[in-house]
Amino acid sequence: MAGLFISFEGIDGVGKTTQADLLEQWLKASGKSVLRTLEPGGTEVGVEIRKILLHHRGELAPRSEAALFAADRAHHVATKIRPALERGEIVITDRYLDSSVAYQGAGRELSRQEVRDLSLWAVGGLLPELTILLDLPADVARSRRNTTGTEPDRLESEKIEFFERARQAYLELAKAEPERFLVVDASVDVNAMQEAIRARVSELI
Ligand code: TYD
């Protein structure tokens, strides 16, 4: 495909949105066409699915949760990401399939391989050229998150162990696919992180 597909990953509170914003601004300033998007909820259908995933008050079985994230992703890829890549655009998504492997696979203790296969099926095998993993210990990420003052959603309300499992899974994913992943230490300052990200993206454009 003509475009470039970049995903941001990491547990809640590591600062993905800030870094994705800065990367988007930099690419646009140099005249690139950028589609900035997110999961869950990058499409109209996705916004509906997101409401269930983040705000449903009753029980949601782990496999149902995994299937809903995959459904959101399937529609997102089919209607937004793939068309943008075919037009030659740079797609920056705040979360993609590695989130499901980390949160549903490791966090919910489903099979990581099955969760990955489910998502890969949903997206027809589409993987990012670059996945930027922002890494922080779960307790540090949590304390950053708490400063925002908003009510925690269904996933944010999980125990610290859930996020520690997700973090470890992310690091293992990065180790298994070093050519796709850039791991950035999210304890350094915002500008230093962005510099490392831009250096890697420059190599790809
Ligand atoms: P969001 O408010 O977008 O969180 P963030 O700003 O940290 O990305 O909510 C998304 C939540 O959904 C977040 O807690 C991570 C979780 N999630 C999964 O559990 N599995 C997935 O496949 C995705 C995409 C997100």
Describe the fold and architecture.
This protein is α/β, with parallel strands linked by helices and 205 residues long. The protein has a single domain, classed as Rossmann fold. It contains eight helices and five strands, in the order βαβααβααβααβα. The chain has a five-stranded parallel sheet, sandwiched between helices. The longest helix is centred in the middle third of the chain and has 25 residues.
Task: Present the secondary structure layout.
Blueprint: E1 4-9, H1 16-29, E2 34-38, H2 44-55, H3 62-86, E3 90-94, H4 97-107, H5 112-122, E4 130-135, H6 138-146, H7 160-176, E5 181-185, H8 190-204
Parallel strand pairs: 1-3, 1-4, 2-3, 4-5
This protein binds thymidine-5'-diphosphate.
CATH superfamily: P-loop containing nucleotide triphosphate hydrolases
Radius of gyration: 16 Å
Q: What does the main sheet amount to?
A: 5 strands, parallel
CATH architecture: 3-Layer(aba) Sandwich
Descriptive labels:
Rossmann fold, single chain, alpha/beta, 5-stranded parallel beta sheet, globular
Provide a brief overview of the structure.
By secondary structure, the chain is of the alpha/beta class.
